[in-house]
Design goal:
2 copies of one chain form a homodimer. By secondary structure, the first copy, chain A, is α/β, with parallel strands linked by helices. In chain A, about 30% of the residues lie in helices and about 25% in strands. The first copy, chain A, has 4 domains: about 180 residues, FAD/NAD(P)-binding domain; about 120 residues, FAD/NAD(P)-binding domain (3-Layer(bba) Sandwich); about 120 residues, FAD/NAD(P)-binding domain (3-Layer(bba) Sandwich), CATH 3.50.50.60; about 90 residues, 3-Layer(aba) Sandwich (Oxidized Rhodanese, domain 1). Chain A contains 18 helices and 30 strands.
Chain lengths: ~550, ~550
């Protein structure tokens, strides 16, 4: 009879426990959770704060009792494992209700401790109006603070998933909200030009967005001395930012990121990777083969390079938990690389990504090309179509898909899912052209956004199109000329790239002699389609040319 | 200078013309269209009739003038090609405005004639209140008839895409509508148990659905003699159905299907396939290498088997048009097999499919297994989640994906797209387990419907689960016992499979001795999840068992 101990009762741990029981009725399975809840919907926490999820109970997916009845797992909440004793294969556990320690032996141990919010050593940050959000008690405290203090203003520090979701939740509750982010963009998984519409969306909904700014110190409100922090309870906070601004606020949410929870693993001398996560092999074993680890606490191999990466996402955690149970019972399954496919709702927009972004490709020195497509979420003539902005990164030598990002009101999840499957399957941009996706006017287009991205990328690799990007068109050389092929009304209404000559695409054939044959023509239109038609005309008439991928829309976003 | 003639100015033809121009400024390109419009949104026609698409102009995506200006293509509408003269490589064309014939020579010819509605030889069907819907003039006639006659009742014959969309359009216009379908289900691309919720949805929205019934004859209303059909204009129609019913109606839409338009190809002695479509090779050449053919008129190789199939869908037509232009200029591209991925909106539901359905797998004698998953379109605790019913067909020997079907209010397109990409890429059901799809509560679940289908299918192949289906559980042998593991309240409220013993899954461990060890236990729950937990308990306790995939929900649908 195998005795399995599991540390952590949320995504990965709970998945491992349930799967282990399905595989064996005999196994003894004990799951330790230091908090009061297991299997709670951690991704739902901001939505309960914001009011979208009305019932708190909806977040509690399982209880110790339901888990016992269904899976015969001995769930011990409020029981914190304080040490792993590898030599005798036991754990020392503290019952947080009784404050007594006790021991349990194991045959196999599963670590699913998760990650913890990074709380930087900022002066004054330890106060009664500052919170992070990782679990149900955190959420309860934030709601209690809102209900008790009725804040008129809140500040979120950090523009990642939780920071963005919290800013939206606070705005939904009618609280004026500032979001402070150290870098020049929110949502680090996407590149800056893809984040630009997110900034607009947040500002449009009233978020006071402060990019490129750090929180330096926290004081009690009304510039009282730092040693009077006790008055925070009544008076709120004053934040000092790195640009010198002072910000009066009544609620502070710290959401600058999470770090793997590795204290137990370190204490037990398990190998820790360079990124600070628990190292596991492809069967998800730590450096001790009887100890498995899953979820936010571990380092995963990133899909494109195989390099170690921290990927604190629910999907991988759940699948890893299931796989560990399989492997405990001898399945010998190997965890495949992680793409880090993710999505975030930002008011009426969604932003999603998979694979590597351009920043990372540059940092790793990998060869890449990129294309942008702006197309409708479904047939433009059917009501409710919204533009999707898709960025596709690929290997210019062989068309391998390196990553993709998309922003829009509708259908963003679908397009990134489609590309994530294609990438995982080893399809190339050439294959994206041929994907047969569902089409009827309410759902898509006969040539879907993804097909179109495949066309543009394949054209580029095959030499049917030479692409240019914002950086090149912003600083044309003396041997280059910038040509705007939109209609004059579009230029008047929306502006144009400085220095561009305007010949509408439908007049280009008759006016082509107005252009110099000795210069390279950098063509652009609104999104890249007419630009490509013009580009092909020019090249077929013997001109040198390039087409701005994504057109003026992408250029505007890159400039923002 | 290549001279390219194109017959047909909609999806495939227009795509070929535009791409050909992008590849060559020199080519002479003439596109003939016998109707008054090119590049119209044929998939949008029912939605203009129903009022969702308010502006008729929205359906006219290009005009001859815009096509000339943008692509320098000589577009000749109201010009019908009357013969292909292969020996001298010319066409004879009739100008329908002048009724004069003339000739044009070609180097390369592209046939994109589309398909035409099948109008069966039913007595009385040629009358002023009976229409089919394939193009803008058809649509205009239907709208004119509605506006002139103000019908209180309409009848649609045929439950495919157009028939269903037309029934919805007519209901939206406030017209009582009957839908008459010869087979026992609408939407032939899916299997009958997947069509059952579509029938409910249509009836719920007021469609008078008549399945298993054929239209036998059409009379003028009020049972006047058949030779008085002239009175139809004033008095409407009486329909005689194969079950003897008489149906008074004022508007009749014939939508029983389409057949490839092959008259020109036949006249030119091009090879026609067994299914009645133009035969092409993988480069989309007909039996005459200077004549290409694309779209609804040709036979495509079906994805799983490579067998010829008729796949009259917009996506393949558009891509084929583009590919033909590439091949005319020497690209040598090969058309890949078609999965026939398709989707249809049915009031608030969507139904979609890709690959082969079970009916076809049975007919072709191919080995298959099937699983059903009922899961939420996104996290159940976030508002707006709706159930998705997914059927996955796979090869039980190696897990190859054979086909998939889904029905639901939201997210159906995404799941079928994901599976379509996986199938095209050659992924198996094992790979579906590992797909990393976008997850946040508004968009999906940490274990998506598709992942879950992968889990169930992989469990089945690996022997972790033995599945049973409705036919087996409906007629258990003397050595079998049917076990319902739902809670008694569910049985009271929703009913149960006749003869089932009820032990709720959470009581099974303590009551397991109530079950006979010498019988095979056929377990079921509502959707299959609890059934699997119970199945694993039983097997791990030494019982023989099977789990009903899709549970009571699928059983109910199969019975409907």
């Amino acid at each position: 009879m195998t005795k399995i101990l599991i540390i952590g009762g949320v995504a990965g741990g709970a998945s491992a426990a349930a799967r282990a029981r399905r595989l064996s009725e005999d196994a003894e399975i004990i799951m330790f959770e230091r908090g009061p809840y297991i299997s709670f919907a951690n991704c739902g926490l901001p939505y309960h704060i914001g009011g979208d999820i009305e019932q708190r109970d909806a977040l509690l997916l399982q209880t110790p009792e339901s888990f016992k009845a269904r899976f015969n797992v001995d769930v011990r909440v409020m029981n914190e494992v304080v040490s792993i004793n590898r030599q005798d294969k036991t754990l020392t556990i503290r019952n947080l209700n009784t404050q007594e320690n006790y021991q349990e032996s194991y045959d196999k141990l599963v670590l699913s401790p998760g990650a913890s919010p990074i709380v930087p050593p900022i002066p004054g940050i330890q106060n009664s109006r500052t919170f992070s959000l990782r679990n149900i008690p955190d959420m309860d405290k934030i709601i209690a603070s809102i209900e008790h203090n009725q804040p008129k203003h809140a500040t979120v520090v950090g523009g990642g998933f939780i920071g963005i979701e919290m800013a939206e939740a606070l705005i939904q509750r009618g609280i004026n909200t500032s979001l402070v982010e150290l870098s020049q963009q929110v949502m680090a998984p996407v590149d800056s030009e893809m984040a630009a519409p997110l900034h607009q969306e947040m500002q449009h909904h009233g978020v006071d967005l402060r990019l490129g700014v750090a929180l330096e110190a926290v004081f009690p409100s009304q510039q009282q001395a730092a040693d009077e922090l006790a008055s925070v309870d009544e008076q709120g906070l004053e934040l000092r930012l790195s640009n010198g601004d002072l910000l009066e606020t009544e609620l502070l949410i710290m959401a600058i990121g999470v770090k793997p929870e590795t204290s137990l693993a370190r204490q037990a001398n398990l190998n820790i990777g360079e990124l600070g996560g628990i190292q596991v092999n492809s069967q998800l074993q730590t450096s001790d083969p009887d100890i498995y680890a899953v979820g936010d606490a571990i380092e995963d191999p990133e899909f494109v390079t195989g390099d170690a990466a921290l990927i604190p996402l629910a999907g991988p955690a759940n699948r890893q938990g299931r796989m560990v149970a399989n492997n405990i019972f001898g399945a010998g399954e190997h965890y495949k690389r992680s793409q880090g496919t993710a999505i975030c709702k930002i008011f009426d927009l969604a932003v999603a990504s998979t694979g590597l972004n351009e920043k990372t490709l540059q940092r790793k020195g990998l060869a890449y090309e990129k294309v942008y497509v702006h197309a409708a979420s479904h047939a433009g003539y059917y009501p409710g179509a919204h533009p999707i902005n898709l960025k596709l990164l690929f290997n210019p030598a062989n068309g391998a898909i390196l990553g993709a990002q998309a922003v829009g009101k509708d259908g963003v999840d679908k397009r990134i899912d489609v590309i994530a499957v294609a990438q995982r399957a080893g399809l190339t941009v050439f294959d994206l052209q041929d994907l047969e996706l569902t089409y009827a006017p309410p759902f898509g287009s006969a040539k879907d956004v993804v097909n179109q991205a495949g066309f543009v990328a394949a054209n580029s690799i095959q030499g049917d199109t030479r692409l240019c990007h914002s950086d090149e068109i912003n600083q044309p050389s003396a041997e280059q000329l910038v040509l705007d092929v939109r209609n004059p009304e579009e230029l008047e209404k929306l502006g144009a790239i400085p220095g561009a000559v305007n010949i509408p695409v439908d007049q280009l054939r008759e006016r082509i002699n107005e252009l110099p044959k000795d210069k390279e023509i950098l063509v652009y239109c609104m999104v890249g389609l007419r630009g490509n038609v013009a580009y092909r005309q020019l090249v077929n008439h013997g001109f040198k040319a390039k087409n701005l991928t994504g057109g003026y829309k992408t250029w505007l976003a890159a400039k923002a």
